[in-house]
Amino acid sequence: MKLFITSIFLFVCASTITAQDWEKYKSEELALIAEFPGTPQKTVQQVQTAVGELDMHMVAYAGDDIYYAISATEYPKEFADMSDERIKSVLDGSVNGAVNNLNGTLESDENITLNGYPGRKIKIKASGMDVFMNTYLVDNKMYITQVICVEDRKDTKSLNKFLDAFDIINVKQ
Questions:
Q1: Which of these, 85, 89, 60, 90, lies nearest to 75 by C-alpha position?
Q2: Helix (H, G, I), strand (E, B) or coil at 20
Q3: Using CB atoms within 10 A of its CB, is residue 98 exposed (0-12), middle (13-18) or buried (19+)?
Q4: Which residues contact 60 (CB under 8 A, 6 or more apart)?
Q5: How confident is the model at residue 107 (pLDDT cuts 50, 70, 90)?
Q6: What is the pLDDT of residue 173?
Q7: Is the C-alpha dihedral spanning 81, 83, 86, 87 positive or negative?
């Protein structure tokens, strides 16, 4: 009986520790708030786009068989005031680019919003991995949250926690 109670206690403690391991991340510079299951690393990469070279800010955490990342890329100011058709085109380009870069198959795609800003929620199946991605266009800034995990080994609770915890500091008026 004592072993049983000790086992339950250790399980509860381990569950509590796991629940507390998530770290809040806030960046005023990138105007975002998120939660990661550990301490994320921030990097900046120059990426070549149709509108020229842009800085892509990445905040990422790699765990066992799973990768959590947020990217924020600021586009030229003329992207801030686009028609609905142009917004759809930019988001389509983001989705298609992700599918093509991964040489994957788009399994789901739905329109979403965050604080009044348009976005897309997609799932891509690629060689040995599943990719869950939300992309948002906030004026002239593109935010992408993604979870990449080994195929069929996804932790749905953790990936949903990560994707749902993401927020932008801006609210569309």
A1: 90
A2: helix
A3: buried
A4: 40, 41, 43, 67, 68, 69, 70
A5: very high
A6: 52
A7: positive
Evaluate the CA torsion angle 89, 90, 91, 96 in order and state its sign: positive
How many other CB atoms are there within 10 angstroms of residue 142's CB atom? 23
| Residue range 23-168 in CATH 3.40.1000.10 | yes
Structure tokens at 59: 């905040």
CA distance 123 to 134: 9
- The predicted structure's pLDDT at residue 31: 94
Alpha helical stretches, state H, 21-137: 84-102
Pairing state between β 41-49 and 52-63: antiparallel
Q: Partners of 60 in the beta sheet?
A: 41, 69
| Maximal CA-CA distance, the chain | 69
Beta strands in the chain (DSSP E): 23-27, 32-36, 41-49, 52-63, 66-74, 105-114, 117-126, 129-138, 141-150, 167-168
The contacts of residue 158 (CB under 8 Å, 6+ apart) are 37, 66, 147
Q: What is the chain's Cα-based Rg?
A: 18
Task: Return the domain boundaries, the chain.
Answer: 23-168
